[in-house]
Each structure stands twice: as structure tokens, then as C-alpha cells.
TrEMBL record:
Residues 7-181 form the Bacterial bifunctional deaminase-reductase C-terminal domain. Signal peptide: none annotated. Gene3D superfamilies: Dihydrofolate Reductase, subunit A. This is Deaminase.
């Protein structure tokens, strides 16, 4: 049985995914809206996120997100987010990095070889692997179709400049909508996409045969 790779992303309406959790999470580029997600949390999104976390049996992270998680989650085992912390602590963590980072969090492993081969091995080892945050790494997975499902929680705010999963310089990617969730109490929508392995196609709306 081949496991599935999910990419979980919280994003503003204008596509910014940088630092949803707190002011000091990622201030690159002078980003001034760190923690933009916090005022918009609600029960619906909480239930969706919790269901995804409980279903996963491995975490796959970029180096920067791993460092943020490793500094936070091992210290939350008895707090209000203890269920999430215990799950993250219990499952294997895989870190995609070109360097040789120190991985002190329990059951953490470096992916430093050929990415396709590494992901193939993870699919054989695990049932449901989730990438959380890790914007740069997630861009690579999306660009090359190396994922099974992209879970986008889209929030009704616009913040302007910031890091995006889909940057202005591409690459172009065609996706397939798998499902659209209900609007949450504070206006977030969960959109689930699959990879088509193709680029967008174009047409000419002035041609009579353009509609099919």
C-alpha cells in the first residue's frame, strides 16, 4: 500500500502563508502581520485541523518549520494543546534539508538524498504523511507534483506582501479540486486539491468552439 502525502496550508485571501501562528514566527522581509490567523480561529477549523493531525502517522517538514516546531511542541505536552503536542511527539518527523542540521526532537530523521527516492521510501513506510507550513519545501512538492492532496484553509483577510505557496514567478501548475468544505464561523474555507501533473491550458473565448 502506497502512503499519501498531504500539504496543509493556512493562507490569506491574497495567498500569504507566512507566520500565521505568532508575531515572531517569521519576520523575514519585515513581515508585519505575524499571527494573522490567531483572531480567526474557530471551532470548525479547529475540528478540521484536529482530524487531520489525528489521521497522520508522519510529519514531513522543511528545515525552518522543523526548528520552529521543535522549539515549541515538545514543551506543550501538558498545556491546552497537549493532544496535538503528544501526537507530534509520538510520530516520526522527517526534515528535508541540504545541510546537516541538528535534529534533537524525538524520532526526527534527515532527508538529504534524492527527493523522489526519499518520498517513495516514505510512502512505503507510512500511510498518511503531512507537510505543515514549510513554504519553500511545499513549493517544490507542488511544482513537481510530488504530493497527493493540498489542503488549503483560506481566510477572509488580505495582508499584502508576504511569503506565498504560489509566488509571482511560478511555476505554472494545474490542480484538481477534490472537495470544498463549509464556511467556518469566522469565514475560513477548506479547499482540497489534487495534483494533475500538468500545467494550465489556454483557449480563446472568441472562438465558437471554445466552450465544451
Amino acid at each position: 500500500m502506497s502512503g499519501r502525502i498531504h500539504i496543509d496550508h493556512f493562507t490569506t485571501l491574497d495567498g500569504v502563508a507566512q507566520a500565521p501562528g505568532g508575531p515572531d514566527e517569521d519576520t523575514d522581509g519585515g513581515f508585519a502581520f505575524g499571527g494573522w490567523q490567531a483572531p480567526l480561529l474557530d471551532n470548525t477549523v479547529g475540528a478540521q485541523v484536529d482530524a487531520g493531525i489525528q489521521a497522520m502517522d508522519a510529519l514531513l517538514l522543511g528545515r525552518r518549520t522543523y526548528d520552529i516546531f521543535a522549539a515549541y511542541w515538545p514543551h506543550q505536552l501538558d498545556g491546552p494543546v497537549a493532544d496535538i503536542a503528544r501526537k507530534f511527539n509520538a510520530i516520526p518527523k522527517y526534515v528535508a534539508s541540504r545541510g546537516m542540521p541538528e535534529l534533537g526532537w524525538r524520532d526526527s530523521h534527515l532527508l538529504g538524498g534524492d527527493l523522489v527516492e526519499e518520498l517513495t521510501a516514505l510512502r512505503e513506510r507510512h500511510r498518511e504523511i503531512h507537510v505543515i507550513g514549510s513554504i519553500d519545501f511545499a513549493r517544490t512538492l507542488v511544482a513537481y507534483g510530488l504530493f497527493d492532496q493540498l489542503n488549503l484553509w483560506v481566510y477572509p483577510i488580505v495582508v499584502g506582501a508576504g511569503k506565498r505557496l504560489f509566488p509571482d514567478d511560478g511555476p505554472p501548475v494545474a490542480l484538481e479540486l477534490i472537495a470544498a468544505g463549509a464556511v467556518s464561523e469566522k469565514g475560513a474555507v477548506l479547499l482540497r486539491y489534487g495534483s494533475t501533473g500538468s500545467v494550465p491550458t489556454t483557449g480563446d473565448m472568441t472562438r465558437e468552439d471554445s466552450a465544451t
